[in-house]
Specification:
The protein has 139 residues and is an alpha+beta fold. Helices cover 16% and strands 33% of the residues. It is globular, with a radius of gyration of 18 Å.
Length: 139
Amino acid sequence: MAQQGGNGEGESVFSEAEAHPEGRSGKTASLERLVHLVADLNSAEAMFADVLGGTVVGEGSEQLGPYRDLTWPGPARLRLVNPTEPAAAAWMGPRAGRLHHFRFSGTEGVDVTGAVGRNDGTREVRPENNLGVRLVLAP
């Protein structure tokens, strides 16, 4: 269940200190996409496009394997990937699908606890260090 913060009259129910905690950089990252590993791209597309109303806006191949990008209204995208990269395939295991990571941009200069550099210039927070959710942080 989602709730909107506020009192119904346009005022926040959070104090200024709660809304803007000390130590925050003031920068806002943008969610680029969620990357979801799937055993079968066609079946996954049928669910996310046909049933859930997404629109396929691209396809190709990346390091993890062949993919299809879907979008809904708004800037973020869902990337469905059939993993051919051995570590990703092993991580997914026998499941029909498994969320691999959230990819954010605009994170340059932002200190993120647990983030380690990767060869492609991004940083990663491993799922075991982030309540099971992998983050990929692009500059």
